[in-house]
Structure formats: C-alpha cells, structure tokens
TrEMBL record:
The gene is serA. Catalyzes the reversible oxidation of 3-phospho-D-glycerate to 3-phosphonooxypyruvate, the first step of the phosphorylated L-serine biosynthesis pathway. Also catalyzes the reversible oxidation of 2-hydroxyglutarate to 2-oxoglutarate. Pathway: Amino-acid biosynthesis; L-serine biosynthesis; L-serine from 3-phospho-D-glycerate: step 1/3. It is an enzyme of class 1 (oxidoreductase). Residues 456-528 form the ACT domain. The keyword Transmembrane does not apply. This is D-3-phosphoglycerate dehydrogenase. Belongs to the D-isomer specific 2-hydroxyacid dehydrogenase family. Keywords: Amino-acid biosynthesis, NAD, Oxidoreductase, Serine biosynthesis. GO terms for molecular function: phosphoglycerate dehydrogenase activity. InterPro entries: ACT_dom, D-isomer_2_OHA_DH_cat_dom, D-isomer_DH_CS, D-isomer_DH_CS1, D-isomer_DH_NAD-bd, PGDH, PGDH_ASB_dom. It catalyses: (R)-2-hydroxyglutarate + NAD(+) = 2-oxoglutarate + NADH + H(+); (2R)-3-phosphoglycerate + NAD(+) = 3-phosphooxypyruvate + NADH + H(+). Its EC number is 1.1.1.95. PANTHER family: FORMATE DEHYDROGENASE 1, HYDROXYPYRUVATE REDUCTASE. It comes from Geomonas diazotrophica.
Length: 532
C-alpha cells in the first residue's frame, strides 16, 4: 500500500502506519499542483489536512487512488461526490478535535465578553486602563447553539456550566439528545429572535451556506453576540460587517472564513473591525487534537487494509459503532450470497431485492445492502465497484435496488434473501449465519443447508436412481475430490438439485461430460472468491 502525505500530520499517527510492513509512505509537503498531479497516480492513499485540494483534476490523475484520509473533521477541500463516482473512499476524523473545537468556541466567546485581546494589547503597549474594557457576564444570558452534534453538544454543556439558559436547533437529532444535555430544542427562528448569544456548529453544506444572512441578522435582538468556530460561509460575512457597523450586533468572534487565507476587501474589513475577535482557523490546533486526528485516520487506513468495516467514511453507509461486532458476520454472509447467485444469472439485472427477516429487520441494514450490491456488480462490470460507488453504478445501469424487512421468521432468527430479476428470469438465494459461519439455506424454491466453499458444482436434473453415483464416478476419474454434497428436491422422482463442494475446480470438458451422463437440465461450476 503506497501512501502519500501532503500536509503536516502528527508523527504519532504516521508512526502507526510506518510500523506496518505493508505500507510504503512518502511525506511530500508543499507540492505545487502540477508536481502532485505528476506523481499521485502511483499512490493508493493520500493523507491530507486542509492544505491540499482533492478536486476533480487531482482525482483524475490519481488512477490508483483508493482512499482519501482527511486528518480532521471538515472535508470542504475534498470533492466527495466526484470521489464517490470514482469509487474512492473518503474518511475523516470527526471526533479527534471535538474537545479542541468546543474549547476554542468558548475561548472566543470569553475573549470577546471580557475584552481579553484589547486589554492584552493595551497593557503590553504600556498603558494601565481598566474602564474601557468593561465586559459582559455569561450568567443569566440566553445562548443559542445551532447544531447539536459532538462539538455543539460540548459547547452547550459548557454554556450551562456558566449558568446560561441554552436553546438549541438541530433538525437531525433526536429530542432525547437535547433532553440528556439539559437544553431546550427549538427552531432556528426562535434562536434568531430570543438569544443574547448565538454560536454555530454545523457543517458547511448547500443547506447551511449563508444560513445566517441579512434577514436573520435583522431579526436578532439588539446587542447579540455571534460566534463562528465551525465553517466559513455559514454566516454571510458581508451581512455580518453591515450588522456590526449598524450596532445591531454588539460583537462577534470568528475562527473560520469563507476564504482561507482571507484576501477580499470584505474579509479584511471584517477581520480588522473593532468589535471582532478573530483567529486563523485554530479550532483544531491543539497538540492533543492533532495527535488524535492523525491516529484516527491511521487506524481507518489499517482497517481498510485488513478489509474491516471503516468507521468514519464520509461516502459509505455505516452501522452504529455499537452494532459493528454483531453485524460483521452478516456483511460476510451477504458477500457470499451475492458472489454465489450472480454466477447463476445470465440476463440483465432489472431489479435486485435484499430481504431481511427476523431480528436483523429492526436495524438499519443499508450497509449490508450496499455491500451485497457491490459484490454483485463486481462480477458484471469492468470498473471496480465498492460500497462507495455501488448505488451510483446500479443507477447508471438502470437497475432498481429494493430493500424489504420483515420481523416474522418461522425457521431462522435472522435470514438474508437476495432476489435478482431479469428478462424472463428470476433467481433467489437465502442464507443465515450459524456459529459465525455463512450457511445457504434456500436456492430458488429448494430448501438446502450447506456451507459455501471456494469450488462448487451446482446441478439440476430429473431425479432417478444412479445419478449421484455417475457424478461421483466421473469426478473421481478426473481426480476431483468431493468434500460435501447437499441434495434438494420438491417431490420423489421430480426435479432434483444437488450442490457439490469440491477440493478443486471442474474443467469445462468435465462439466460437459457430467451434463451428458446425467442429462442435467442445468450445470454450473462456481468459484466463490468470498469463501477462500
């Protein structure tokens, strides 16, 4: 695995990777775009912070790239959509600098309220003045937290410790989280109209871009204090400048900017404004946070190399971390089922249905579905398909993907069924996990029970005496050992289906010999990559 590091990343994280003999790492800082384009095609992984833009041109040059590791929370510098289309996984470290960012937001707020920066400059300049630096207390004020995620939640807790009444706005969290934090969940409009202090802690998206502009600032209480330690562009900076000049806003403290480094006239005026406390994007700049994010992305890369589920991928559906242990066997099962059934389908894939029966049905099974879809499509297209681009690939092929859940299961506590429909053809396979091992329990309408193996032979034929003996004789003649056999049939002397587990592959001429000898209606040798 060849890895290139293009920004300053803490040694503690890189050392984890450098100790792995599978890793070849090159640290190349400060490369110009053209220099990076010329070499990026040699690498499987790029580790960046905010100094490298992973955009369409870079991704087009990165012909072998499999993973972008952003050592930090924000991925504004990564074109995630285009990376997804290319099948490139994007991971970040969403929790490594959580505490650092929350503490910095509070530092900005307290610095403004107590005139720390102005008083510091005055005293260092030789003056002893106190009256000009009379400040504000937080106790008794109403504070609004926009975004109650990991950082926003910590900020809310700290504001409560300063005896603020805390209102919060976040349409993506459960009411229980707000209740657990002891804050009141309200609408954005209520925060705008009622709060003395407003602090934002959301990602920058099309939905949050310019979320606070002229209209919102005009509706705020006179003398409001605004903090932005999240992402530049959430608050419209031109509108912010006007609100400071008009006196509507008592003051603000920003750590982030829509342009970094800032060089527009609006940003220069905003940064220089006497009512502003400013820092150059230092939210994650603690020694602890830089180590944490470096270690977190290094561990994600190792998980990828070990073919383990990745916990913090931006563009892959993922389980709740607490469920990962119990769900991992079903990720393996769906891979095996998909690998098996796709070899039995010769037509176009019009529709693929993933059905979850039993206890599994109460959970979010999207990661299992996407994992199975990737396994199916990898047998059909030349481009590598993974959990990143599987749905995009299915969409481009016109394949409908459906997920069905039912809690009622008479025979198995958990069951996964894949059904593939094409022109004039329908294939079905069901499987479960027994003692951690995948078992296939149904093919089409035949009840079966066998463990998938690397080499298998599937046959359908008219049930009559002597057929099994003929199969064994022919395979034995060609020194192909039968490890296990499973037989299914609907009725006596009707159609029968047999699945043989073999120690080696069956050559095409032997398959034809078996077909003729048994007058089989269907014979298919199978090679299961997932069962190796």
């Amino acid at each position: 695995m060849k890895i290139i590091v293009t920004d300053e990343v803490a040694h503690e994280g890189l050392a984890i990777l450098q100790r792995d003999p599978r890793v070849q790492m090159d640290i190349k800082l400060g490369l110009k775009k053209e220099e990076l384009y010329s070499i990026i095609g040699d690498y499987d992984v790029i580790i960046t912070r905010s100094g490298t833009t992973v955009d369409k041109p870079l991704l087009d040059h990165a012909t072998n790239l499999k993973l972008v590791a952003r050592a930090g929370v924000g991925v504004d510098n990564v074109d995630v959509d285009y990376a997804s289309a290319k099948g490139v996984i994007v991971v970040n470290a969403p929790f490594g600098n959580t505490n650092s960012a929350a503490e910095h937001a509070m530092a900005l707020l307290l610095s403004f309220c107590r005139n720390v920066t102005k008083a510091n400059g005055s005293l260092k300049g030789g003056a002893w003045k106190r009256a000009p630096f009379t400040g504000y207390e937080l106790k008794g004020r109403t504070a609004g937290v926009i975004g109650l995620g990991k950082v926003g939640g910590r900020v809310a807790t700290r504001l409560k410790a300063f005896e603020c009444e805390v209102l919060a706005c976040d349409p993506y969290i459960a009411e229980k989280r707000a209740h657990d934090l002891g804050v009141k969940l309200v609408t954005l409009d209520e925060i705008i109209k009622n709060c003395d202090i407003i602090t934002v802690h959301t990602p920058l998206t099309s939905e949050t871009h310019n979320m606070i502009g002229k209209k919102e600032l005009a509706a705020m209480k006179d003398g409001v204090i605004i903090i932005n330690a999240a992402r530049g562009g959430i608050i419209n900076e031109e509108a912010m400048l006007e609100a400071l000049d008009s006196g509507r806003v008592a003051g603000a403290a920003f750590d982030v900017w829509s342009q970094e480094p800032p060089d527009s006239e609006t940003l220069k005026k905003l940064i220089g404004h006497e009512k502003m406390v400013v820092t150059p994007h230092l939210g994650a700049n603690t020694f602890e946070a830089q180590v944490n994010v470096a270690v977190d992305v290094a561990k994600e890369i190792l998980r990828y190399m070990d073919e383990q589920p990745i916990e913090n991928a931006i563009n892959i559906p993922k389980f709740d971390a607490s469920l990962m242990g119990q769900m991992r066997p079903y990720l393996n099962l769906v891979n095996v089922l998909a690998d098996f059934i796709i070899q039995l389908v010769d037509t176009n894939l019009n529709k693929i249905t993933f059905t979850y029966t039993g206890g599994l049905a109460q959970y979010d099974c999207t990661p299992i579905t996407v994992c199975g879809l990737a396994s199916l499509l990898n047998r059909r297209v030349e481009q590598e398909v993974n959990m990143v681009n599987a749905q995009l690939m299915a969409d481009s092929m016109g394949t409908v993907v459906e997920e069905v859940k039912t809690k009622n299961s008479e025979d198995f506590s958990n069951l996964i069924t894949i059904t593939i429909e094409g022109p004039g053809e329908k294939r079905l396979i069901s499987g479960t996990v027994f003692e951690g091992v995948p078992r296939i329990v149904k093919l089409r309408d035949y009840q079966m029970d066998f463990r998938p193996e690397e080499h298998m032979l599937l046959m359908a034929y008219g049930d009559r005496p002597g057929i099994i003996g003929k199969i064994g004789t022919i395979l034995g003649k060609h020194e192909i050992n039968i490890a296990a056999m499973n037989l299914g049939r609907r009725e006596k002397k009707g159609e029968a289906m047999v699945i043989l587990s073999l120690d080696s592959a069956v050559p095409a001429d032997v398959v034809e010999e078996v077909r003729k000898a048994t007058e089989a209606t269907f014979v298919k040798p199978l090679y299961l990559i997932t069962a190796k």
